[in-house]
Write a structure and sequence with these properties.
With 211 residues, the protein is mainly α. The chain is built from 6 helices and no strands.
Length: 211
């Protein structure tokens, strides 16, 4: 018993055990292959000529007349739309600035008008308060006169100018938006037309090669 244990724990014994396991695995694989349980690739390797042929691009089928007609029809429709948009674009008045600049300018004007309204309200309130004190302090009459003839009218004039400018900018913003939308639509249609034209040229080239 001790001799048997010493044999399997020695180097020759370990090698013999490994060889026995490998032999069993090989036998099992052969049985599975014979029973068609394990697939085996029996195809021969490709020759150099076969590899070269397999790497060649496949020839697309010849285009049908229906494909060409559809592309030509769509390109014609886009061309008509582009011409109409270009005519409309020429009639849109040129704005004084870009849409972003005009909107920013409008915000600044609205802010200035708000500040002017606050200044006007403060000047009128001061005038009204001084009028109540005018009987007891006649020397403030000059200050009231200045508020009524200079400060308040100047603020009102400045506010009217700002309101007129705001109206002008408000009229320019729709023009800028309309031109921007027209430009974007034209650019999109021109890109689509170019893509379709390239496809049509490719089909016509394939048709010539087929002949």
């Amino acid at each position: 018993m001790n001799d048997t244990q010493s044999f399997w724990t020695s180097l020759p014994g370990i090698l013999s055990g490994i060889a026995a396991v490998i032999g069993a695995i090989v036998s099992l694989l052969l049985v599975l292959i014979q029973l068609n349980i394990l697939p085996v690739n029996n195809k021969p390797p490709l020759t150099s000529d076969q590899k070269e042929l397999s790497s060649l691009p496949t020839v697309p089928p010849p285009p049908s007349p229906d494909q060409v007609d559809k592309l030509e029809s769509r390109i014609h429709e886009i061309s008509v739309t582009i011409n109409e948009l270009e005519e409309k674009f020429a009639t849109i008045p040129l704005p004084t600035g870009l849409i972003e600049e005009l909107e920013h300018h409008r915000e600044e004007i609205e802010k200035n008008i708000g500040e002017l309204e606050q200044m006007l309200a403060a000047a009128r309130q001061e005038r009204d308060e001084l009028r109540g004190q005018e009987r007891t302090a006649p020397d403030i009459s000059a200050h009231i006169h200045k508020l009524e003839t200079e400060t308040i009218p100047d603020l009102e004039t400045h506010k009217r100018h700002m309101e007129n400018e705001l109206n002008s900018v408000a009229e320019e913003i729709p023009k800028a938006k309309e031109r921007k939308e027209a430009e974007e639509t034209l650019h999109q249609l021109q890109g689509e037309k170019q893509i379709l034209q390239d496809q049509l040229d490719g089909l016509r080239m394939a048709e010539k090669l087929e002949r």
